[in-house]
Design a protein that fits this description.
Length: 139
């Protein structure tokens, strides 16, 4: 994904703080809470503060570089959104673990989309339940 182009198209400046947050989420290969993102980003830039994280999360969402989801136990998570790596999530309501999967349920809607003439521009798909470890505790 061309990060600079994404910012230019939205008329938003790519600051050093935003670059640190994008790189942190991209390199993590997992969704993070704002607090986790803050801790990880401080390794790259010790002077970053928590309010900077929150302000820039909204900007990065509007540019389309990160997505927001919940972990099934009430926490909001943020993940790098790579258009070349289309995936969805299984979210454990027990431990909050998020598992990515590549198959896309939107393909199953092709007939409905063709019949209605609806053209989706994006979507989010999360399945909530219990991971293998948490299922053991529920039996």
């Amino acid at each position: 994904m061309d990060i600079e182009k994404s910012f230019r198209e939205k008329g938003v400046r790519l600051t050093h703080q935003r670059r640190v947050l994008i790189d942190t989420l991209r390199d993590a290969h997992r969704a993070m809470t704002a607090q986790e993102l803050y801790r990880e980003a401080r390794m790259a830039w010790p002077h970053i503060n928590f309010s900077t994280i929150y302000r820039n999360i909204e900007t990065l969402k509007s540019v389309g570089l990160i997505c927001e989801m919940t972990d099934g136990i009430g926490n909001t998570l943020f993940a790098y959104r790579d258009e070349e790596e289309h995936h969805h999530h299984l979210v454990c309501k027990g431990c909050g673990k998020t598992i990515s999967f590549d198959s896309c349920p939107l393909i199953e809607l092709k007939q409905v989309l063709d019949e209605t003439g609806f053209m989706p521009t994006g979507h989010r798909f999360e399945v909530y339940g219990y991971c293998k470890e948490c299922r053991k505790d529920r039996v």
